[in-house]
Write a structure and sequence with these properties.
The protein contains 7 helices and no strands. With 259 residues, the chain is mostly helical. The protein has 2 domains: 80 residues; 173 residues, Four Helix Bundle (Hemerythrin (Met), subunit A) (Up-down Bundle), CATH 1.20.120. The protein is rod-shaped and about 120 Å long.
């Protein structure tokens, strides 16, 4: 701000000086009666005819000189504001990094567990046997996915991330909910079989639903993995923007200039 104000004053002074010089030249070249024949006369007429302009110029110079401490104070104030803003932004960045790390760790662990179970060490998609899925294993994984889903919803409620991150997190939450439904259907016959509160029709529908859920399991897990990758990529891009913002503030403070 100080530099901009100084440049403005200098520009105004140059314009003011140019006007005075042009006017002085025009007066000196005038052919009116009683034209001055010496320098003292010219100086007298110049001061007499342009005393208002001269006074304005002197006032402008005095104002610029008197305003220097104010500009320095404003510069310090803006620097302090930048430092405070940097702390807030840095704190927010740390929170985004922490939430991304937690999310990625949980989602990756779930997906790896599913892939190892359904494909084995060879990771051969053709080797998947839906009937090999243990309902108890599905119940355990379902709890892990529910834990991830609760964590993501807490992050959403905190409103501590950017709009893009929260939008992609919603996609991951939706993928979690679909995987939860799938895993719940797989374990349902073991959990609810023989339940006296189920009607005969409801109980008879458990096994067909579980069979279809076993078939859908790879697709549901793949959707969760892709949603997590999307969230990770978008979060990293947002973090890069925030880091550049912090870098801009640091450079500005070090240079002693405002943004």
């Amino acid at each position: 701000m100080k530099n901009n104000s100084t440049l403005a004053v200098i520009a105004a002074a140059l314009v003011f000086s140019s006007i005075l010089l042009i006017a002085a030249g025009a007066m000196s070249n005038a052919s009116a009666q009683g034209a001055c024949k010496d320098l003292v006369c010219h100086a007298y007429r110049f001061v007499r005819d342009f005393q208002t302009f001269i006074a304005a110029g002197l006032a402008m110079g005095a104002a610029w000189y008197a305003g220097k401490p104010v500009w320095l104070q404003l510069q310090n104030m803006y620097a302090q504001h930048d430092i405070m803003a940097r702390d807030v932004i840095a704190t927010r960045l740390a929170g985004i990094e922490r939430r991304l790390e937690t999310t990625n760790e949980k989602a990756t662990s779930i997906c790896n567990n599913v892939w190892r179970t359904i494909y084995g060490n060879m990771w051969d998609e053709e080797s998947y046997d839906p009937d090999s899925i243990n309902p108890l294993w599905a119940d355990d994984v379902e709890r892990d996915v529910r834990d991830l889903c609760r964590t993501l919803e807490e992050y959403q409620h905190s409103k501590s991330d950017t709009a893009l991150i929260e939008a992609n997190r919603d996609i991951l939450i939706d993928s979690c909910e679909k995987l939860i439904d799938c895993l719940s259907s797989i374990s349902a016959p073991a959990r609810y079989g023989g339940d006296p509160f189920l009607t005969e029709e409801q109980e008879s529908g458990l096994e067909p639903a579980a069979a279809q859920a076993r078939i859908d399991l790879p697709e549901r897990a793949d959707s969760l993995e892709k949603a997590n990758r999307l969230l990770t990529a978008s979060t990293e891009r947002e973090m890069t923007k925030i880091k550049l913002r912090i870098r801009t503030i640091d450079d500005s403070v070090l240079a002693g200039n405002d943004l």
